[in-house]
Amino acid sequence: MISWLMIPWNQISRIVCGCFFSDRNYIHMMKANLDTLQKTLQELENGRDDLLGRVAIEEDRGLQRLAQVEGWLIRVETVGSHVNDLLKDGSAETERLCLFGYFSNDCITSYNYGVQVSKRLEEVKELLSKKGDFAVVAKKIPVPKAEKMHIETTVGLDTMVEMAWNSLMNDERRILGLYGMGGVGKTALLTRINNKFVEEKNDFDVVIWVAVSKDFQNEGIQDQILGRLLVDNEWKQATENEKASLINNNLKRKKFVLLLDDLWSKVDLNKIGVPAPTRENESKIVFTARSKEICNYMISDQQIKVDCLSPDEAWELFRIAIGEIPLENHHDIPRLARKIVRKCCGLPLALSVIGKNMAYKDDVHEWRHAIDVLNSAGHEFPGMEEKVLPILKFSYDNLKDVEVKLCFLYCSLFPKDFEIEKETLIEYWICQGFINANKYEDGGTNQGYDIIGLLVRAHLLIDCEVKTKVKMHDVICDMALWVESGFRKQQETIFVKSGAHVRQIPNAINWEIVRRMSLTDTQIKKISCNPSCPNLSTLLIRQNSELEVISVGFFRFMPQLVVLDLSENWVLTGLLRTEVLNLGSLQYFNLSSTLVTMLPVDLMKLRKLIHLNLEYSSIYDRLVGIATNLPNLQVLKLYYSNVYVDDRLMEELQQLEHLKVLTANIKDAMILERIQGVDRLARSIRGLLLYEIWAPVVILNTVALGGLQRLKIVRCNISEIKIDWKSKERRDLSWEGFNHLSAVDIFN
Predict the structure, then answer these.
(1) CA dist 352 to 37, 236, 716, Å?
(2) Which pTM value belongs to this model?
(3) Which domain holds residue 728?
(4) Is 9 part of any domain?
């Protein structure tokens, strides 16, 4: 204890007076203040949690939390930390008190501690009083000046990047055209220019990247520009003229750079709404094209030709693609590798694709065979078809299995740069018979992923940023269509249309010969024709935001149709009736994410059907007779539809002997318990929605539900969810948990 003789009298006087006469009375009020501090801190933390919940909702909508909200949260965190440190000493300090709490065994320490408690209490009260000030917690995120884009290692572009950059920094230059043959590296060059705006200091307000295409329409370009300029989506309902006005009003106040990738014809920037670059606004436009004529049409101030690589540059890029190991496996491989490089004629795309494919070849005979294959395709390439496609076809020819080749060619059914869900792609392949589902316990899914891996490694497919998706490079897609058409010697049997410019089914379709057809992301509102399609096996009508009705007769003459996908037509309500009778070959039927409320009357007569997807649909059908009428069903997806598993449906599901994949909705705890008791049925469950279940305890068994991937719990009143780790025989297992579970959502 500190000796009182060592303390100045004025401090002793202040402490004594503080004990008996002060309004604050830090020592006597210490215990009460501690209790109040603890309760007030809890209130503050509850307020913080409520605010964080509101912030999370707004951030999920793409908004950014306000600085004052972030500042308040940081202060709460800081003050909370100080208070918790203070509360740790609370018990020890209160034990020092004596004389009914008016005095202490160590008055100096207790007084100072009491002062700190009072101070922190005021801080907490102040923060608590301000928690209700945040009527608005987030704001729209400001559009970044430029967005850095991913790009692989490039060779031979440095000089052209500097040339293009210097041109853009020149006040006399307004429009810059980059042209060259397909696969030569124009997109890579434009990407590096884009990234230079991120890396180098400049005074431009915004840099906009637009991916154009051969079948571009003005609205497609407008949508990409507006998506870059505006955070909200209100503009999506505007007309083409209204979008042009929005773009013009936004850009005329800015010093902008517009990067247009892959022009195939003249783009009327005035109709799109882009102000012409002038000396006054100091804006710039850069575009890529395959021909110099496009540069002339666009009235470019400067044109830069992107040439193929020199022999040394081509060798450098090829070595990067294959790595050093193959070159060291045999003394003759480097000589053969240089032969392959010469066959590629300096085309970066071909060098990269073939090089990465050869990276796995460690036997000299494989390299000699590669030379033979390239020689048989010819080494003089006067045009695109002669230069690029045969070289790209080499990677296709190198696929050893016919089934893998069929799977690859099937990908040409999707629009260029379309991101394809791997799971959906595999489902198509299975139903088309490219994968033998009966050969594998999992129905062929794993083999499907193996094939996708082969195609990605062969650089015939590309992994997307979203790991569940892949896409096909547009030149690779050209090659696939080239192969499908018998190298341009036959009429095209694949029909693919997409984009805002498609407002009705084109009249030019030769329905008699078409084998596969895709209408994706169009503006078609109604399909009312009655075509005769004796050879059509796949029909994808997906993601058409305005499609409302498909007429009665459309499906009447499609006897060979195997895959029918009508998913993500969000406003589709009117659908086929009895004509489903004529779809006797149908194996895949997808109505997910539509407003269709009733299944076609004769759906239950499609006895070959193996895949039925009704997820996120408005279907109310109870699926009466599904076991009897659809005996071959292997995949049934009901997740987030209006179809719930009840006693009757569960009895029918148990009779589906081939069922391998089930996503289901359950609103009865007893049904949930029963379904876990049926091993084969429970093992098939991949997605599970528990809706409005009222039960004190719900048990989820990790063995029974071992294949579960998605779990959503909505509006349930469940006190406890127990996880059962034991098998049916009550054995402890060597693993714990749901090994495949990737998403759990709980909503009140």
Answers:
(1) 66, 38, 54
(2) 0.60
(3) 622-748
(4) yes
